[in-house]
Amino acid sequence: MVVFEKTKGLTDAPLHYCPGCTHGIIHRLVAESLAELGVLDKTVGVASVGCSVFSYNYFNCDMIQAAHGRAPAVATGAKRANPDNIVFTYQGDGDLAAIGTAETVHAAARNENITVIFVNNAIYGMTGGQMAPTTLPNQVTQTSPYGRDVTVVGYPVKVCEMLSQVTGASYLERVAVNNVKNIRAAKKAIKHAFQNQIEGKGFSLIEVLSTCPTNWGLSPKEALKWLEENMGTYYPLGVYKDKYKEEK
Amino acid sequence: MSEKVLMKGNEALAEAAIMAGCRHYFGYPITPQTEVAAYMAKRMPKIGGTFLQAESEVAAINMVIGAASSGVRAMTSSSSPGISLKSEGISYLAGCELPALIVNVQRGGPGLGGIQPSQSDYFQATKGGGHGDYHLIVLAPASVQEMFDMTFKGFNLADKYRVPTMILADGTMGQMMEPVSLDANAVETYDKSWATVGTGKHEGRNVINSLSLSPAQLEEWNKSRYERYALIEKDEVMYEEFMMDDAEICVVAFGIAARVSKNAIVAARKQGLKVGMIRPITLWPFPKEVISKAADKVKAFLSVELNMGQMVDDVKLAENCKKPVYFYGRTGGVIMSPDEVLDELIKIEKGEAKQW
In this complex, do A63 and B52 lie within 8 Å of one another by their Cβ atoms? Predict the structure, then answer.
């Protein structure tokens, strides 16, 4: 009796992520959602720049690798060309909330019928742990070695809160993957975001609070705790916008 | 041939794109190319196409990347400063081996520059612009009719070789009105089984990507692309020869500078000067061979450009220092008169001009 199977939504390529990094969990949730909704064979994913750049090797669907921050624009072009495709982006915080801010906000403003998976781990992972737009106040990184000084570099960007003010956006939810309960809620949100796209409801963004044990300098277990105690309070979980629910 | 209509270059180009099967246009307003966007905004909704005004030139070219990845004919247009912004995306198009059409209706630069016609993006168009080892096919129309015809050519070549193609026009070509015949040119179709349209529509997974952390693999990709560039250089060079049979001075000019030079050449002939012209129509691949052959017959070359001297370097490389090369240019949006070119030709004839 099979009690646990690998999802068809992922290829057999071994993930390159560091031990304890929660990208793997998020990949699985996205892949499972696509497989369960039966849309894997018409899905086009857009990989971004950062740790998740190689996601084009992992998602078992057609993939496009986009320039840093430009994934929502690439996804827009793909979706407009073939509206029957399910198009999603998978982006980190540097990609989505720094260099790609304009593309993110305007894809939301157009209510572009795409799904954005936004992985927020409060640091630049791929380049070795620099300050991100979502790095917390006083958080130590390679480029904020004395802690993020908000009087000098300003405050972290709260993406869901910001986009909730954008009229066009349809569905915005912040979730986390630091414990089983939250992972289950994250899965539900991600699946809902894809369901929205299938129903033509427009722009959905799921912000997933994620860990980076390597660059946070913590063990995987400590990292999960750090996420809950620090990120969880600065970035409250919950639904920030559900246009269709509001309209009901 | 159908009856001719009077049209602006930008509009003739836009109509040609639609006739060539382009249904996906992504742009951003900038003078002097905005008529292309305006025309598309009017026409695309009526024919089931997509006109999307992006939040920036950067976003527009990336939308082109997404649409081109999906296998459709996609394009964007802009003018010089906007093309600088698109250069990142153009490099990705080249690296991802995606066909697309990019139109640059050039204006004076650098920086914000001006809005008057210029050819000062020659280097950017033919030598890179974006990063990495790549070329664009660069077409240089010299009439509204060519704005129309070369749009078909641009899409065909892009699809044939899986390379981005640029139409390098200038403010004059975009803005001036001329009679144009709107007869459709051939629309060639090529295999696009590589497109990301979902695994349900093809074997295996399709991935559009320009990243490789293996130097050996990246070198292999670049070499394989350069094999295609070699084919393009062999088969796709286009140029026009004008009064070259007995020419002693060969003008080399493209676009509006070639139009001005033609008048100067006719005037020079009346004064007994044997002048002809080679007009590159493809700026890349550059018509090296015909210039090299001309170098065996003529006494001198004069490169006439709306810039401080850019194509002249390619002329010099092509003629291989066999004969003296001169340059005459105006820049910043100033267009030379035929008389200025004629004066330069007379100076060359008298041995009074300074070599490049």
Answer: no
